[in-house]
Amino acid sequence: MNSAMHLLQALRARALEILERLGWLAPLLGRLAVGLLFMSTGWGKVHSIDKVTAFFESLHIPAPGPNAVVVGYSELIGGTLLVLGLATRLAAIPLIVSMVVAILTAKLGDLHNVFDLVGFDEFTYLVVLVMIVLIGPGAVALDHLLVVRMRSHAHRASSRQAERQKVE
Fold first, then answer.
1. Nearest CA among 24, 29, 31 for reference residue 138
2. 42 with 73: CB under 8 angstroms?
3. Which of 8, 23, 89, 160 has the greatest count of CB atoms below 10 A from its CB?
4. Are 125 and 33 contacting, i.e. CB atoms less than 8 angstroms apart?
5. Is the dihedral of CA 127, 128, 133, 135 positive or negative?
6. The whole model's pTM is what?
7. Tens digit of pLDDT for each residue in 90-114?
């Protein structure tokens, strides 16, 4: 029994070690899933502004024409930025707003309880976007590469300054 427990603990430790090394994968998959989706829907909206405007009019959204343009380009550009992992947290914010508005307008008639809410695709996208804002883009992102590069540059600059101060 004791050796079985040790084996189980060793297997658990090994599994957790593997999962820890794969931690970069979750934010990447989340960004790609919603980013590609919003790139696609944004592209469709940008190329069908008149249809989106008419839909927004039917939902009684104020200024439906300008809002159709804003939503279309927010989805297209925001989705692209999410895929690239560039300005990720900032790019997610307009998409979060868009999903909240979609739930409160297009989906409101179908919302009767919390189970309806969690069944909406828009709610799932909203949750993934909030997770991206909270946890960041992950290691496989241009944001991450830029931060690493800026830290490296700042470190080299401070090292040069320290060297100059030693010489003086």
1. 24
2. yes
3. 89
4. no
5. positive
6. 0.85
7. 999 999 999 999 999 999 999 999 9
Q: How many CA atoms, within 13 angstroms, populate the side-chain half-sphere of residue 61? A: 23
DSSP code, position 61: -
Residues 105/111/113/118 CA torsion (nearest 10 deg)? -80
**Which segments of the chain does DSSP mark as H helices, in order?**
2-21, 25-46, 49-58, 64-84, 88-104, 114-119, 121-135, 142-167
- Per-residue pLDDT at 25 exceeds 80: yes
147: pLDDT confidence band, cut at 50, 70 and 90?
confident
In this structure, the chain runs to a length of 168
CA 1 to chain centre: 46
Dig out the tokens for 50 from the structure: 């008149």
With H, G, I as helix, E, B as strand and everything else as coil, classify residue 116.
Answer: helix
Distance of CA 53 to the CA centre of its chain: 26
pLDDT at 163 exceeding the cut of 70: no
